C-alpha cells in the first residue's frame, strides 16, 4: 500500500504504453501468485514473458485486460488505470487490448469470418451482431485480415471446428487485430502447436507487430522462440520478475534462476 | 485373504465390500415385497384380468370408420395438434430467457435462485393436474390446455436448457468477453452458437411430448382429442377408441420422422 502511494503517476520516468505498478494478485489470501510486479511496456515490438508453469505469467497477462481482477496495484494503459475501471469504462478500455489464447478459444460452431468479426463486438450493437449485419467496412477488413494471416478468402465461411491448430490460431490472431487494438496480449499462443507451426505463428505475430506497429506481449514457455522473436525478455519466477532485458543478455545463469536447476540446459 | 501375497503380510482386498450399497439393495427388495402385499397386487388377479382384457380387445375390432365419427375425430385431432404447436411455441420462447436466468455460470445468485425455484414449481405437477387448475381459471376449451402445456414446456425445456448452458465451453465465452463485447453480444456470438443445436433438440423433443399430452388434457376439459376419447370409453364405444388410438399413434410417428429432419437441419 505504501508503494502504491509513492507511484501514483505512472508517467514519472516512463513514456511507455503500458505501466504496471506494484501489481499483486492473491487467489487465496496470503498466497500471492504475483508479488509486487512493476513493468513498463514500450509502444512497439514483441515482449516475451518466460518462466515455468504456475509462476503467474498467465495471471499477469489476464490482470492487464482484467479477465482476472488484481488484488492491488495499478495498470496504466492509454492514460487510465485499468485496475480501477468497472462496467462500461472497463469495457471501452478493453476494446483496445486484443488477446490471443493458448487453445485459440474460437467459437467452434461459428465460421472463420464470424469469429474474426467477433473482434468488433465491442463496437457494434446487439441487433447487428444478431442479424450478422456488421458494417460493410468491418466485413471488408475481416476478409483482408483473413488474407493477411495467411488463410485466404476461401476460409471465410468454413466452420472453425474444421480447421487445424495452426489455422485456428491464425483466426485467433485476426480476431485480435480486428479490435484495432493498441496492444495485443498472447497467452502461450504456440504451446498447443507442433514446432514448425509454432515458428510460423511466432513469425506471423512478429510481422504483425512490425507492420501494423502493434506492441505484443507474449507468454511463452519456449526460450528459443522467445530469443528469436522478442526484442525484450522478461523472466518470471515464483511471482516475481527476475530478468528484464534484451534476448542477448539472457544467459544460462538467468535461465537457472528462472526455471531452477540446470540439468535441462 | 485367500492368496498370500508375501509371507507375513496381507494385501488389502482389491474389491472391498460396499455395505451401504448392500443395505440399500436389501431395503429396496423388502419394501417392494411389503408394497405388493399392501396393495393387493397378486398374480391371481392379473390372470383373471387377462380374460377381461381379451374381451375388451375383441370388442375394439374392427375400428369404427363411420364418416360422422371420423369427422369428429378429425376436429379433435386438429385441435390437439394446434394445442401442441401453440404451447410449444410460447413455452419455448419463454424457456429461452428463463433457462439463461437459471444457468449458474451466467446469472447472479439473485436471478439464478428464483429462476430455479420457478422451474421447479412448473415441473412439480403433471400437465393434467395443471390443466384442471386452468380449466377452473379460464373455463373449458383449448386455452386451458395450451396454458397447461406451456407450464409443462417451461418446466422441461428451461431446466435442461439451463444445464446445457452450464456445460458450455467457458474458454470460448472468455475470448469473446476479452474483445470487450457487452453481455448481449457475448450471448449472441459466444453462448448461442454453442447451445442452439441442443436447444432445438430439446424443443423438438418437447413438441413430441406436448403432442402426446395434448391428447390427454381434453379428459379434464382442456380441449383436443381427449374429450371424444374419454366419452368413447365411457359409452363402451371401444371401436371408436381404437380408431382414435390408431390415429394418435400415426400422428406421433409422423412427428418423429419430421423432428428427426428438423434436428439435422440445425446441426
Automatic annotation (TrEMBL), chain A:
CDD domains, alphabetized: ABC_PhnC_transporter
UniProt keywords, alphabetically: ATP-binding, Cell membrane, Membrane, Nucleotide-binding, Translocase, Transport
Entry's Gene Ontology cellular component terms: membrane
Protein origin, superkingdom: Bacteria
Gene3D superfamilies reported in the protein's UniProt record: P-loop containing nucleotide triphosphate hydrolases (3.40.50.300)
Segments forming domain ABC transporter: 18-263
InterPro entries referenced in this protein's UniProt entry, alphabetically: AAA+_ATPase, ABC_transporter-like_ATP-bd, ABC_transporter-like_CS, ABC_transpr_PhnC, MetN_ABC_transporter-like, P-loop_NTPase
Molecular-function GO terms, alphabetical: ABC-type phosphonate transporter activity; ATP binding; ATP hydrolysis activity
Presence of the UniProt keyword Hydrolase in the record: no
Family stated for the protein in its record: Belongs to the ABC transporter superfamily.
Protein name: Phosphonate transport system ATP-binding protein
From TrEMBL, chain B:
Cell membrane recorded as keyword: yes
GO molecular function, one term: ABC-type phosphonate transporter activity
Membrane topology reported for the UniProt record: Multi-pass membrane protein
Location (main, coarse): membrane
Transmembrane region(s): 23-50, 71-95, 182-205, 217-234, 240-259
Signal peptide (UniProt feature, chain positions): none
Subcellular localization(s) per the UniProt record: Cell membrane
GO cellular component: plasma membrane
Gene3D superfamilies in UniProt: MetI-like
Coiled-coil residue spans: none
Domain of life the protein comes from: Bacteria
Keywords: Cell membrane, Membrane, Transmembrane, Transmembrane helix, Transport
Assigned protein family: Belongs to the binding-protein-dependent transport system permease family.
Stored PANTHER family: ABC TRANSPORT SYSTEM PERMEASE PROTEIN P69, PHOSPHONATES TRANSPORT SYSTEM PERMEASE PROTEIN
NCBIfam families xref list: PhnE (TIGR01097)
Protein name per the record: Phosphonate transport system permease protein
Organism: Chelatococcus caeni
Amino acid at each position: 500500500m505504501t508503494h502504491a502511494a509513492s507511484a501514483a503517476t505512472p508517467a514519472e520516468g516512463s513514456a511507455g504504453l503500458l505501466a504496471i505498478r506494484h501489481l499483486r494478485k492473491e487467489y487465496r489470501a496470503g498466497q500471492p501468485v504475483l508479488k509486487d510486479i512493476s513493468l513498463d511496456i514500450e509502444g512497439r515490438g514483441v515482449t516475451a514473458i518466460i518462466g515455468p508453469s504456475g509462476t503467474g505469467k498467465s495471471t499477469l497477462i489476464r490482470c492487464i485486460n482484467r479477465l482476472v481482477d488484481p488484488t492491488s496495484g495499478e495498470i496504466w494503459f492509454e492514460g487510465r488505470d485499468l485496475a480501477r475501471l468497472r462496467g462500461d469504462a472497463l469495457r471501452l478500455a478493453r476494446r483496445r487490448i486484443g488477446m490471443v489464447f493458448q487453445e485459440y478459444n474460437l467459437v467452434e460452431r461459428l465460421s472463420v469470418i464470424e469469429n474474426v468479426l467477433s473482434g468488433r463486438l465491442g463496437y457494434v450493437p446487439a441487433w447487428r451482431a444478431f442479424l450478422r449485419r456488421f458494417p460493410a467496412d468491418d466485413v471488408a477488413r475481416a476478409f483482408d485480415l483473413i488474407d493477411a494471416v495467411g488463410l485466404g478468402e476461401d476460409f471465410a465461411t468454413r466452420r472453425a471446428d474444421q480447421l487445424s491448430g495452426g489455422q485456428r490460431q491464425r483466426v485467433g490472431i485476426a480476431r485480435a487485430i480486428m479490435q484495432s487494438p493498441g496492444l495485443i496480449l498472447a497467452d502461450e499462443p504456440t504451446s498447443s502447436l507442433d514446432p514448425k507451426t509454432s515458428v510460423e505463428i511466432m513469425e506471423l505475430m512478429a510481422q504483425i507487430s512490425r507492420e501494423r506497429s502493434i506492441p505484443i506481449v507474449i507468454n511463452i514457455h519456449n526460450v528459443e522462440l522467445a530469443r528469436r522473436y522478442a526484442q525484450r525478455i522478461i523472466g518470471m519466477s515464483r511471482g516475481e520478475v527476475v530478468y528484464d532485458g534484451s534476448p542477448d543478455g539472457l544467459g544460462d545463469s538467468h535461465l537457472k534462476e528462472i526455471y531452477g536447476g540446470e540439468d535441462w540446459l | 485373504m485367500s492368496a498370500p501375497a508375501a509371507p507375513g503380510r496381507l494385501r488389502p482386498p482389491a474389491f472391498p465390500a460396499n455395505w451401504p450399497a448392500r443395505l440399500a439393495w436389501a431395503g429396496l427388495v423388502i419394501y417392494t415385497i411389503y408394497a405388493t402385499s399392501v396393495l393387493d397386487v397378486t398374480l391371481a388377479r392379473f390372470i383373471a384380468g387377462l380374460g377381461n382384457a381379451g374381451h375388451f380387445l375383441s370388442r375394439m375390432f374392427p375400428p369404427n370408420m363411420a364418416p360422422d365419427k371420423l369427422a369428429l375425430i378429425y376436429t379433435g385431432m386438429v385441435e390437439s395438434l394446434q394445442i401442441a404447436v401453440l404451447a410449444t411455441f410460447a413455452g419455448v420462447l419463454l424457456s429461452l430467457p428463463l433457462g439463461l436466468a437459471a444457468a449458474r455460470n451466467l446469472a447472479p445468485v439473485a436471478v439464478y435462485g428464483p429462476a430455479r425455484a420457478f422451474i421447479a414449481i412448473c415441473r412439480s405437477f403433471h400437465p393434467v393436474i395443471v390443466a384442471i387448475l386452468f380449466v377452473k381459471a379460464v373455463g373449458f376449451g383449448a386455452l386451458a390446455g395450451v396454458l397447461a402445456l406451456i407450464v409443462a414446456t417451461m418446466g422441461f425445456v428451461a431446466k435442461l436448457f439451463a444445464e446445457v448452458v452450464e456445460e458450455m465451453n467457458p474458454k470460448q465465452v472468455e475470448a469473446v468477453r476479452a474483445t470487450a463485447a457487452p453481455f448481449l453480444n457475448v450471448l449472441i456470438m459466444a453462448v448461442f452458437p454453442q447451445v442452439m443445436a441442443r436447444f432445438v433438440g430439446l424443443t423438438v423433443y418437447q413438441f413430441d411430448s406436448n403432442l402426446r399430452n395434448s391428447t390427454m388434457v381434453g379428459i379434464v376439459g382442456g380441449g383436443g382429442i381427449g374429450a371424444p376419447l374419454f366419452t368413447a370409453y365411457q359409452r363402451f364405444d371401444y371401436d371408436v377408441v381404437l380408431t382414435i388410438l390408431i390415429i394418435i399413434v400415426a400422428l406421433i410417428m409422423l412427428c418423429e420422422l419430421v423432428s428427426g429432419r428438423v434436428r439435422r437441419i440445425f446441426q
